[in-house]
């Protein structure tokens, strides 16, 4: 499947308290909770390709664990990109 | 599904579009519960203060509640005052230093249960202050007891069967009371349950501070915040629960804006 990634995050996973508000807030649904806990035992969000850099996760996060970056050029991955090569 | 590396900034050319915390917060660390809405509301206030260029000329008057812990980390001048007395303290400060943006931060227990008289008298006097009310319907700091603004049917630590109007009375809708008084300039209600409402709430807070600096009167911005611990719901379900319970009694939006009335 063709995937365009326009942004990315820095996640300070060890400060996360696992409230999962970012999971439902993410419009492209690219955040999922981890299977293992962080330093304090809470599950934390992990990012899959497809982030748009919309900052919704950063805005809803009560624990300030997100920093959002937007790429100058979108990164295209998946079948379309492979075909082009 | 593949997982993207998120431990350090990307190597590909990129712009940082959002930081961890607002500049006026000294650290990201705080001890509030998972899923709490108050840090989000406080971030909005601090961002608005910075946007309006008030970073060096504002004083926060903090009531009693969980949000009080931010007095140590907010990079603004602060006074912690007696329960519910924030608008009274703010009155004194604003009258001595009229050029300074004075804002109060109170919870619903602090404003509607303990200090109802202070906010109503400050409004009656038409003080030029901005009051921020973090409304979650419980005394979160002491473990989730009922406040005057808990909604009918709300389960709290001392209304385990739900708030009953016949026994516990009806909730006080402070926003509507303040809006009905001539001393208020701007009254609005926002919430922090999703990204769209957070953006709308930021605009409301901005207007609240603008009306103060225009010397129009008291501005009250009520923000519905999640308290999943006090509501006995999972942290992830706090936002939905809030809009199903508090959201029905406290509709979101602007209640009064004196600037809009003057133009008409």
From TrEMBL, chain A:
Question: What EC number(s) are associated with this protein in UniProt?
Answer: 1.2.7.3
Annotated 4Fe-4S ferredoxin-type domain residues: 7-36, 43-71
Q: Which UniProt keywords apply?
A: Iron, Iron-sulfur, Metal-binding, Oxidoreductase, Plasmid
Record GO terms (molecular function): 2-oxoglutarate synthase activity; iron-sulfur cluster binding; metal ion binding
Tell me the SUPFAM superfamilies matching this sequence.
Answer: 4Fe-4S ferredoxins (SSF54862)
Tell me which PANTHER family the record gives. FERREDOXIN SUBUNIT OF PYRUVATE:FLAVODOXIN OXIDOREDUCTASE (PTHR43122:SF2), FERREDOXIN SUBUNIT OF PYRUVATE:FLAVODOXIN OXIDOREDUCTASE-RELATED (PTHR43122)
- Record-given protein name: 2-oxoglutarate ferredoxin oxidoreductase subunit delta
TrEMBL record, chain B:
Q: What is the E.C. number?
A: 1.2.7.11, 1.2.7.3
**Cited SUPFAM superfamilies:** Thiamin diphosphate-binding fold (THDP-binding)
Q: Which GO terms describe its molecular function?
A: 2-oxoglutarate synthase activity; thiamine pyrophosphate binding
- Which Gene Ontology BP annotations are present? cellular respiration; small molecule metabolic process
Coiled coil start-end: none
A Pfam match is TPP_enzyme_C
Stored InterPro entries = 2-oxoacid:Fd_oxidoreductase (IPR051457), THDP-binding (IPR029061), TPP_enzyme_TPP-bd (IPR011766)
Thiamine pyrophosphate enzyme TPP-binding domain span: 77-223
Give the first-level EC class, as a single word.
Answer: oxidoreductase
Alphabetized, the UniProt keywords read: Oxidoreductase, Plasmid
Q: Check the record and name the PANTHER family matching this protein.
A: 2-OXOGLUTARATE OXIDOREDUCTASE SUBUNIT KORB-RELATED (PTHR48084), SUBUNIT OF PYRUVATE:FLAVODOXIN OXIDOREDUCTASE (PTHR48084:SF3)
Name of the molecule in the record: 2-oxoglutarate ferredoxin oxidoreductase subunit beta
Give the source species: Aminobacter aminovorans (Chelatobacter heintzii)
